[in-house]
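Justification of resources, computational component.

The compute hours requested in this renewal are based largely on the per-chain cost of generating structure records like the one below. Each record pairs the submitted sequence with a full structure-token output. That output is archived, and it is also reused by downstream analysis tasks.
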Amino acid sequence: MPTGYFHGTMVGWTGTPKAGVLSAKAANGDVFECRYDAKTYLEYEKHRVTADKYLEGDPLELLVHRRPGEAVCYILSGEFVPPAKVVRPTKQQELKAANMARAARPPVERHGTRRVAGVVAKVTDRSVVIHTREGDEETFVFRVDTRFVGNGFRLERSDVKVNQRLEVEAGRNVDGELEAFQLTWGTLSVPSRP
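The structure output for this chain reads:
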């Protein structure tokens, strides 16, 4: 067993509860043996105990000493180290955390609150990039229910072409992206009156 502080799990002991050899397993699986006696201070939950109080698998922290030139080590002290307790949040704490997370997200817009007109600079299966009248480029993510209306007819995403003039009705989603609710282009012919 290496000198200094050793962290491992109890394997077993031989001898008497007050004097003998204690075996412990390191995290890498190596098993070490070290001697203890009545002067060794062993502790379990803040009480002094003998080696027989430790059960196989108990997590231990041992302070190990070895005299120069000796192969046998000696345990100066040992302590049962209980695993960290899992603290579960109360219902009130969970509710507070959920409210804080909800407040940190940008508000979700259920319909288009913004209208942008411009020319299509790029179109993909997921989004369209519009070069606006102000000279900016804005990206709009398609929704599952995005409507495509050209010349007054309901069309498909594939009908949106680069260099096409159109208007986008958009709003922000949970991730803060601009979502396209409707893309409209073309002209509506109104029949003239005689």
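The mean pLDDT is 86. DSSP finds one helix and 13 strands in the chain.
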